[in-house]
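Example noted here:
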Amino acid sequence: MDVCIIAASKSDEEIVGNITKILEEYKISYELQFASAHREPEKVQSIVAHSHAKVFIAVAGLAAALPGFVASITKKPVIGVPVSSKLGGLDALLSIVQMPRGVPVAAVGIDNGENAAHLAKRILDAAQ
């Protein structure tokens, strides 16, 4: 498995579809899980702990804790995709990029799942 996509909500399915489309074009293997860092932290921990993925893509809106939470429990690269919602996605974007030192999360543009997939490809290519 190359990429593990974790989306915080089923309402993020459109963005997830944009990610999976690009990954499939690149013939990159992936798994998809839905879990909320706020409502299901144990499930998120289990997904990350049991995943053999080389890169994580975490999709979340509002407070967007999911990408940072994933990055705090793995040493693998994490790409955060902020989802537009209450503040046009700015709240989610700022939540993803304002991580403390030592807990890096790459962030792409608001609702830009395509770039998350392209970045995952570049990370995977660089690791070879």
